[in-house]
UniProtKB/TrEMBL annotation:
PANTHER family (UniProt xref): FI07970P-RELATED, OXIDOREDUCTASE, 2OG-FE II OXYGENASE FAMILY PROTEIN
Protein name as annotated: Fe2OG dioxygenase domain-containing protein
Residue ranges constituting the Fe2OG dioxygenase domain according to the UniProt record: 182-296
Sorted UniProt keywords: Iron, Metal-binding, Oxidoreductase
InterPro entries for this protein: DIOX_N, IPNS-like_FE2OG_OXY, IPNS-like_sf, Oxoglu/Fe-dep_dioxygenase_dom
Gene Ontology MF term list: metal ion binding; oxidoreductase activity
Similarity-based family: Belongs to the iron/ascorbate-dependent oxidoreductase family.
Superkingdom assignment: Eukaryota
A Pfam family: 2OG-FeII_Oxy
Classification via Gene3D superfamilies: B-lactam Antibiotic, Isopenicillin N Synthase, Chain
Length: 334
């Protein structure tokens, strides 16, 4: 069998996911994925099963949406509540300030607005977070493309969860049974072009250092760059997660870290100016990305995964429902 590890980017493994999908080396992929989540919390997947044409189509529609006048985008407004992540958020509305505990530092961070805009949606029949769309007749085809891409991502998510379960020495469907709803979120992101000096001087930000809340995140990014991942062994040291053609980046979330009794890492990451950028006009290029956030079903209560605790390494956490955990985190962060 060929090695499923085909390289790395600044220590983040690149894994060929095809041998899991076609069954030729399921355990090899599963073990490689688990090691990556255990050691780094991030992994690049190639041959992941999400068709390139679908990714390209979603990016095209994302650009069409964000190119609309502000008064049009505001016809699908994100609610003021930090727990209802649906609809459109304008630049500077959201500000992430996680993993910072010094009051002066928090004030400094909150005074540097996140210059990004976003649109978020989920499944149409969600009773927890109903979708918020543009009115009928405005940007026809956008809603249908978003929903189609959401379900395409969900299909890939389940395959990734099966691989991760095997890597944890659980039955292949162990994690899938907790992700049946799906209570997930598709986010379209646009980072406008901004002065490079303001980013470097922390006068403004793209998105500050944070970890994700749920089980895992699948990230599609354009070629602009700017994503940085913290070294889990050296807090405060960030390295670029350079875009790789044809790949998606997958990272573990806080809920999965808790669920695994901290066996798996939910690693802090951020978006800044692309590395080594030299701009004649002093501006950083705009950036588009599409993260898909996977959460366990809100109705499910989870305890530490079998095999992640023992008499020598006891459970660190009480059982908790996914809804309770995620909503607590959302309300406290935004």
């Amino acid at each position: 069998m060929s090695d499923v590890n085909i390289g790395d980017v600044q220590g983040i493994p690149i894994i060929d996911f095809a041998p899991f999908i076609d069954g030729s080396n399921k355990q090899g992929v599963a073990d490689a994925m688990y090691r990556s989540f255990r050691d780094v919390g991030f992994v690049y997947l190639v041959n992941h099963g999400l068709p390139k044409e679908k990714i390209d189509e979603m990016f095209d529609w994302s650009k069409k949406f964000f190119a609309q006048p502000m008064d049009v985008k505001q016809l699908a407004p994100h609610p003021p509540s930090g727990t209802h992540h649906r609809g459109y958020s304008a630049p500077g509305i959201e500000k992430v300030s996680q993993h910072v505990y010094d009051s002066d530092e928090i004030t400094k961070i909150r005074n540097a607005p996140d210059v990004k805009e976003s649109f978020e949606c989920g499944r149409e029949d969600s009773e927890h977070m109903p979708n918020i769309w543009l009115p009928e007749g405005i940007l026809p085809g956008f809603k249908e493309t978003c929903l189609g891409f959401f379900w395409a991502c969900y299909k890939v998510e389940l395959t990734i969860l099966r691989a991760l379960a095997l890597g944890l020495h659980l039955s292949e469907d162990y994690l899938v049974q907790f992700h049946a709803a799906p209570d997930n979120q598709l986010r379209l992101l646009h980072y406008p072009s901004v002065p490079l000096s303001q980013l470097k001087n922390d006068e403004i930000a793209r998105i500050g250092a944070h970890s994700d809340f749920g089980s895992l995140t699948m990230l599609m990014q354009d070629n602009a760059g700017g994503l940085e991942v913290e070294n889990p062994n050296r807090p405060g040291e960030f390295t670029p997660a350079t875009p790789i053609e044809g790949s998606i980046i997958v990272n573990a979330g806080d809920f999965l870290m808790r669920w695994s009794n901290d066996t798996i890492k939910s690693t802090v990451h951020r978006v800044r100016a692309p590395p080594n950028l030299v701009s004649a006009d002093g501006m950083t290029p705009e950036r588009y990305s599409i993260p898909y956030f996977s959460s366990a079903d809100y109705t499910k209560t989870v305890d530490c995964l079998p095999g992640t605790y023992s008499a020598e390494n006891p459970k660190k956490y009480e059982a908790i429902s996914a809804k309770q955990y995620i909503w607590q985190r959302l309300a406290a962060t935004y």
